[in-house]
Amino acid sequence: MTRAGIYRSRRSGTPDSETSSGGGGTAVMRVIVPLQGVVQGHGGLVLGSVIPCAFFYFLQFYLKRNRRDEPEPEPDPVIQNSASSTNNNSGSSSPTQSELNGLSRSLSRVIISPRSSGAHVSVSGRANCILKGGDSQGLRRVEEDSYDESGNPDGIIELGLAQNKLRLDVINDWVSQTSIGLSLSGIASYEPPDGLMELKMGVTRLMSEATKNVVSFDPSQLVLTSGAASAIEILSFCLADSGNAFLVPTPCSPGFDVDVKWRNGLEIIHVPCRSSDNFNISVTALDRSFSQAKKRGVRIRGVIISNPSNPMGSLLTRENLYALLDFTREKNIHIISNEIFASSVHGDEEEAEFVSIAEIADTEEHLDKERVHIVYDLSKDLSFPGLRAGAIYSFNENVLAASRKLTALSPVSSPSQHLLISAISKPEFIQTYVKTNRQRLQRIYSEFVKGLKGLGIECTRSYGGLFCWADMRGLISSYSEKGEIELWNKFLNIGKINVTPGSCCHCIEPGWFRFCISNLSEKDVPVVMNRIRKVCKSQD
Amino acid sequence: MRLIVPLRGVIQGRGGLFVGSLIPCCLFYFLQLYLKGRRPPPSDPTELPRTSSRSNLFSRGNSIGRVRVSSRAVPVAKPPDSPYYIGLERVKTDPYDRITNTDGIIQLGLAESTLCFDLLQRWMSENLMESIMQSGDGEFDISSIAMYKPFEGLLELRVAFADFMSRIMGGKVSFDPSKMVITAGGTPAIEVLAFCLADHGNAFLIPTPYYPGFERDIKFRTGVELIPVHCRSSDNFTVTVSALEQAFNQARKRGSKVSGILFSNPSNPVGNILSRETLHDILKFAQEKNIHVIYDEIFAGSVYGEKEFVSMAEIADSGDVDKSRVHIIYALSKDLSIPGFRAGVIYSFHEDVVSAAKKLMRFSSVSVPVQRILISLLSDVRFIEEYMTAHRQRIRDKHVRFVEGLKQLGIPCAESGGGLYCWVDMSSLLTSYSEKGELELFEKLLTVAKINATPGTACFCIEPGWFRCCFTALADEDIPVIMDRIRQLAESIRS
């Protein structure tokens, strides 16, 4: 540009020669060069061609640089922790993890210098995205230095991982009594990957039990998968095409990001709920997000909700569910209800009633049922996450047919199936189990909330799930995500407890934290409270 | 000072100022318009808006168009059209039983083995419950199996797996547990690898005939294409580098990006074993083209022939090659005959692949109780040695018996040295030498002879008339029954 300017100013004194050199009137053939109007004279032919080319080259170069830089997120703790509470693959092998950080960077460098080296073969672009995402710093720290009442009283207490240790003794009795149930012919050979009929019947019984036998579930509409994560992955694969989106009211389970996005290439559009509404889902907010997305040209294929909600632990009422179903009908989209904590409802009988969306769907016409899908997690409800068994319950024949085939890609092994059958085929086991579970959750929940209240920290009222959703807005130094992460770091480093910050659950109000209380026994509660107090003091 | 106008060089004179500004603007406008017209409509305009508007007109409860599943789920939900799956389904409706259903269909389509069930049965009855209950320190602790564990598999299991693999491969290779990710069977292992090595729309080269399940494992979700590299009976279905080269170039011409080669060794369905030289050549080829090599070595422990089995890991370890492109799949379902356990492994020399696969195991990991059983099963060295010897011996016996029976009927088999099946040339029974003739024969075998064998078309073989017959789930007394049935069919066709 500057060079062009110089040329032009040098020649500007001779306007006459300029027009003649342009010579439009003559019949002689001339070469037309883009910038000849700017760069006149003899050099014009060359410069006029070179300059646009150079510009174009630089534009390309600039675009290329920008593209490479964009998908590399900073490794801040929020993103790192986002997978933590459900994703616990964490660094059991921390040395390889640290190598990895170095590696992914060098890999992108390889891409920039285009295949000239030829020696290093690169992995697929989508695998690169996975490499960058979702490592949990908190969890790694817990693995390195975990709390033990006698062995390591100064270790970090795990309150981030959604697992249930309250009922281990019940499970213990069960496993030690099952020795008769396993025989080789049953467990070694090929079995239908979507689950044995016997097990499906047991699971539907368990699901009915959670609704107090109001709903009866049909075993033929059930497909077993290896855990709720793969259940959600398979469902979202079947319901939406790459590039489509799901609406998810927030705060939501941090695992959705991974389950829906990683391999399926789908988007999640968060619909924020606010503390002023007690984090209730409002259909108007859903509607607004829907039309906004539509305007942007994104196609919404469904809504994903959790009931009992994770992290708040609130329950959806019949009215809520009707409203949601009407909304999905109006927009002609699907609804996935994540009911993995259905048997972990612990509120009082009168005020807390768990209503499954299946109950609402049953009152609807056939065509409308087809949009309803339920995700269920056996291992969570039985507090046996190591068993990795989840389920899809759907009213849609096509979805069922497709998921049955896809379970071959994430199957439940036959020994696990037989272990489960031996447990849940006994009705008395399920009943005592669900009852004990409720009582223990109730007890630990009230203890914990009382403790927090003593420190001046309020929680939302929770009726189900393994969590306590605490309002710590008073404790954060600045009312922003940064302040929240600072506090989270303090919890980890000073208080030595690992919790889940609200930003991981995509809560738009900073200062909320999720405590997974089912990791604790009652005598741990004072220890945790002391540690929180310590953090509070350091904050003052 | 003068105004600079873009097209002044072209359009001179007085009008130049005006026209020279206007023309570029117009061009730009038309470009925009063109681009806009070319872009696909943001949402399917026929579906959603109409129905939603209708629902506004009528009040709730009126029938709206059915809610749609995603278009990628539709092909998955469709009933299978491959004869492989059709045959498997048909057997389920009327399975043969020596005593209760002597007219049923005999299953030769599923590669499973019941040859050593007695040994496994004995081990399980002695050790099964203890192995679940036993945690590391010998005391039973429920949290050792109930709680979340690393998705890529317990370290103990990976060590046991590595040891087991090097044992069945003759102790020539040692495997490194840190390069290993335990998966819920061979199927997810292949899918995860395909996902990690290729992007949507990329392709793998794959020599035919190949295992029909790859279609499902790779194409359903990852969107990776399979480009067949045809092998012929004249080479005993062994792939050549020139054929690979040709397929690679053709694919490139068509504009599809080849990201890897997928092989099974011992091959499925032929059962032949690749020689050390071939493996070297393939790896060299991959290096030259800078693509990945995926080796499916699921039948490595079921080798019964004279020919020595060489693992790709050995080749990769041996020389000056770039190892990071080599990925191996292994599973216990065939060699240990425990498909119900769904235990497999990805063994990769590429660190990024290992760590991405670890994360993806969130969706298909092996449950912890099963891991416990496997740890004690695989580390019981005495049992494993006894089992492997018996397994090989019994396949060899069964193979000889089966092939001999076919030979007497005048039906030859391809030369094979591993696997639970043989690759049978039934072209003499075809009424027409074509794919149609082969499918007719498949149908006749199924309905008249009541035998389910997998036809070559299901394995994408280009020569018609070949069938895969799995013989390891048969008892000795079943073989004469099968031969009888085939003889009757052959006589009715030839007469």
Automatic annotation (TrEMBL), chain A:
Keyword field contains Transmembrane helix: yes
Domain Aminotransferase class I/classII large: 159-532
Pfam families (UniProt xref): Aminotran_1_2
InterPro entries assigned: Aminotransferase_I/II_large, Ethylene_sulfur-biosynth, PyrdxlP-dep_Trfase, PyrdxlP-dep_Trfase_major, PyrdxlP-dep_Trfase_small
GO terms for MF: transaminase activity
Protein name according to UniProt: Probable aminotransferase ACS10
Keywords on record: Aminotransferase, Membrane, Pyridoxal phosphate, Transferase, Transmembrane, Transmembrane helix
Bias (Low complexity): 81-94
Region described as Disordered: spans on this chain: 1-25, 69-100
Protein's UniProt keywords contain DNA-binding: no
SUPFAM superfamilies assigned to the protein according to its UniProt record, in alphabetical order: PLP-dependent transferases
TM annotation in the entry: 39-59
Automatic annotation (TrEMBL), chain B:
ATP-binding recorded as keyword: no
Sample GO molecular function, one term: transaminase activity
Domain Aminotransferase class I/classII large: from-to ranges: 106-486
Biased composition (Polar residues): 49-59
Region of interest called Disordered, as start-end residue ranges on this chain: 40-59
One Pfam entry name: Aminotran_1_2
Regions that span the bilayer: 16-35
Keywords recorded for this protein, A-Z: Aminotransferase, Membrane, Pyridoxal phosphate, Transferase, Transmembrane, Transmembrane helix
Name under which the protein is recorded: Probable aminotransferase ACS12
